[in-house]
Amino acid sequence: MKVLYVSSEALPFMASGGLADVAGSLPQALRKRLIGCRVVMPMYDGIRQELKDTMTFLTSISVPVAWRRQYCGIFEAKANGVIYYLLDNQYYFKRDGIYGYYDDAERFAFFARAVLEMLPHIGFKPDIIHCNDWQSALTPLYYSTMYATREGYENIKTIFTIHNIQYQGTYGKELIGEVLGLRPQDTGLIEYDGDVNFMKGAIETANRVTTVSPSYANEILDPWYSHGLDTILRERSFKLSGILNGIDTVSYDPETDPDIFEHYSAADFSAKAENKRALQELMGLPQRADVPLMGMVTRLVGHKGLDLVKAVLDELLSTEDIQMVVLGSGEWQYEEFFKAMAAKHPDKFALKLGFVPSLSRKIYAGTDLFLMPSKSEPCGLSQMIALRYGSIPIVRETGGLRDSIQDSGDGQGNGFTFASYNAHDMLYTIRRALEGYRQPDGWKILMKRAMECDNSWGKSANAYIKLYKDVLKD
């Protein structure tokens, strides 16, 4: 079985978020299971020079973009046993960063079509083209409407994964003629709610549509979560499913992680106490072994549930013997709120604005509790990383948080959960967790259970392989 994995970003080459982690990890896991998986992504100017130096130029082609044609250079690289193709066009991709340009629609329309145009030139005809998020959503549409009957393109299946439905690639209809180059009879596939919607085009034309957790696949059928796409998703629900992402358990390993203060394992996590003490010292908090230390590593934006935190944090810090560490940046209102909390409760609350990867790992390793009260969370990785490091998650039951964290109230779960998007429900759950922390013997059992959870990419890869086999039977 041959799979071409299409992504607008992928580690180790270029990353802005979780999609790059997935595109860097899942293909590796698939190859270990004898699936011939290769990755294709744009050749961004920001890729480090030492990585560019490893690339081999294969050939150049001409790619149609509506009524004009654009140069595309095809480069090949290998990383972690996976072959990557990087598609070069300096007009579109010789820029800072990845997204946020006025012509993103044209840039990624070019990329989506270049993926198909390159196939005859790389000696690799995939059985499945697996596309991700709106930036590659046009590939299934182009394949269905322009390539499926061409010689050499027959019998390819397409899969489209929604990582975050909030970002859909929505633009004005003038793109149809100027950028997309669709035939008049095909424009209905991409028109939605008076606009052009790239994601809608993929939902219509891909053989299967997946999300990054089973719960999120159900949630996006509801207008509360769907950002307007629930109607088309309900119509196409027969092709929709969810597969929970994994984490890189080699990188996130408290036995070997070079960024934490002391190494430890599920068999012996006594050194976690030194990680806690050192984190307290680093963040300017009193070094107390007896006080529960709760962490958050998050973007400071509304859908992460920070309005719940904002509503009750002062009450929590004023009434409970607890410390808290927050790492993140984002909306001004939340940054200013957390600054105020750090000033008001200097012995209980510490804040680091920005994102410091090495500090995030110290927080996972040094905290007792990890808070994720998200309004929506397609998958979430932080709760799985927290489990790996023995920091017990407190989460709202949504998306991948619901699928990966089960409440320990029955003596079987790996964290603490609450269902309603309500600040005092969250506060009650935090207090339940604090009560659990005060029972050392039971807490050690919970920590061991958490650290032994299997959230590796192997489980996810096996689920994708089953999906691939099913779609090839269609």
Question: What layout of secondary structure does this protein have?
Answer:
Elements: E1 2-6, H1 18-32, E2 36-42, H2 49-52, E3 56-65, E4 68-79, E5 82-88, H3 90-93, H4 104-117, E6 128-132, H5 138-147, E7 157-162, E8 170-171, H6 175-180, E9 191-192, E10 195-197, H7 198-205, E11 208-211, H8 214-219, H9 223-226, H10 230-235, E12 240-242, H11 272-282, E13 293-297, H12 306-319, E14 323-328, H13 332-344, E15 349-353, H14 357-366, E16 369-372, H15 382-388, E17 392-396, H16 399-404, E18 416-418, H17 423-437, H18 440-451, H19 457-473
Parallel strand pairs: 1-2, 1-6, 2-5, 6-7, 7-11, 11-12, 13-14, 13-16, 14-15, 16-17, 17-18
Antiparallel strand pairs: 3-4, 4-5, 8-10, 9-10
Helix pairs in contact: 1-19, 4-5, 5-7, 11-14, 12-13, 12-17
Task: Give the structure's gist in a few sentences.
With 474 residues, the protein is of the alpha/beta class. The chain is built from 19 helices and 18 strands.
Q: Please state the average pLDDT score.
A: 96
CATH topology of the largest domain: Rossmann fold
- What distance separates the N and C termini? 15 Å
**Helix/strand/pairing category:** alpha/beta
Global shape: elongated
Strand content: 15-25%
The tally of beta strands, per DSSP, is: 18
Radius of gyration: 23 Å
Q: How many structurally independent domains?
A: 2
Description:
The chain has 474 residues and is of the alpha/beta class. The chain has 2 domains: 2-246 and 458-473, Glycogen Phosphorylase B (Rossmann fold), CATH 3.40.50; 272-454, 3-Layer(aba) Sandwich (Rossmann fold). It is 38% helix and 20% strand. The chain is built from 19 helices and 18 strands. The chain has helices at residues 18-32, 49-52, 90-93, 104-117, 138-147, 175-180, 198-205, 214-219, 223-226, 230-235, 272-282, 306-319, 332-344, 357-366, 382-388, 399-404, 423-437, 440-451, 457-473, and strands at residues 2-6, 36-42, 56-65, 68-79, 82-88, 128-132, 157-162, 170-171, 191-192, 195-197, 208-211, 240-242, 293-297, 323-328, 349-353, 369-372, 392-396, 416-418. The strands form 3 sheets. The protein has a 9-stranded mixed β-sheet, sandwiched between helices. It has a 6-stranded parallel β-sheet with strand order 15-14-13-16-17-18, sandwiched between helices. It is elongated, with a radius of gyration of 23 Å.
